[in-house]
Amino acid sequence: RVREACVSDAEAATIVAEVLWGTCP
C-alpha cells in the first residue's frame, strides 16, 4: 500500500507539473 501511494504521489506530481508548465507560456 505504501509503495502504491508513493507511485501515485509521484504520478500526481508529474501530472500537476506538466499541466502547470503546459499552461504557462
Automatic annotation (TrEMBL):
Superkingdom of source: Eukaryota
Q: What is this protein called?
A: Uncharacterized protein
**Native organism:** Trifolium medium
